[in-house]
């Protein structure tokens, strides 16, 4: 499973908007990899930010 898929899976399991730091704690993925995945997911429109600095999968 690639990093983006793992990040999305963690976000879905959380069931609420979460920050990159929370993704790191829940997944054990390196923060730099998470930041890179967030950047790509944002560009693809796969995640949205309902609250400042917190993200969730787009519907």
Summarize the helices and strands and which ones pair or pack.
Layout: H1 3-14, H2 20-27, H3 31-44, E1 47-51, E2 54-57
Antiparallel strand pairs: 1-2
Helix pairs in contact: 2-3
Keywords:
about 60 residues; 3 helices; single chain; 2 strands; alpha+beta; Arc Repressor Mutant, subunit A; two-stranded antiparallel sheet
Describe this structure in words.
- By secondary structure, the protein is an alpha+beta fold.
- It has a single domain, classed as Arc Repressor Mutant, subunit A, CATH 1.10.10.10.
- It is built from 3 helices and 2 strands.
- The chain has helices at 3-14, 20-27, 31-44, and strands at 47-51, 54-57.
- It has a two-stranded antiparallel sheet with strand order 1-2.
- A hairpin with a 2-residue loop joins strand 1 (47-51) and strand 2 (54-57).
- The termini are far apart.
- The relative contact order is 0.23.
- The mean pLDDT is 95.
Oligomer: single chain
Total helical segments: 3
- By secondary-structure content and strand pairing, the structural class works out as alpha+beta
Low-confidence stretches: none
Q: How many β-strand stretches? A: 2
SSE sequence, one letter per element: HHHEE
Strand order of the largest sheet: 1-2
Query: What would the average pLDDT be, to the nearest integer?
Result: 95
What's the gyration radius in Å?
Answer: 10 Å
User: Which superfamily, in CATH terms, is the homologous superfamily?
Assistant: Winged helix-like DNA-binding domain superfamily/Winged helix DNA-binding domain
- CATH fold assignment: Arc Repressor Mutant, subunit A
CATH-scheme architecture: Orthogonal Bundle
In this structure, how is the largest beta sheet organized? 2 strands, antiparallel
Helix content: 55-70%
End-to-end gap: 21 Å
CATH class category name = Mainly Alpha
Shape: globular
Number of domain modules = 1
């Amino acid at each position: 499973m690639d990093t983006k898929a793992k990040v999305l899976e963690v976000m879905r399991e959380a069931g609420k908007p979460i920050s990159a730091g929370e993704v790191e704690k829940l997944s054990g993925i390196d923060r730099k990899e998470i930041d890179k995945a967030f950047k790509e997911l944002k560009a693809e429109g796969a995640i949205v930010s309902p609250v400042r600095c917190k993200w969730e999968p787009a519907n």
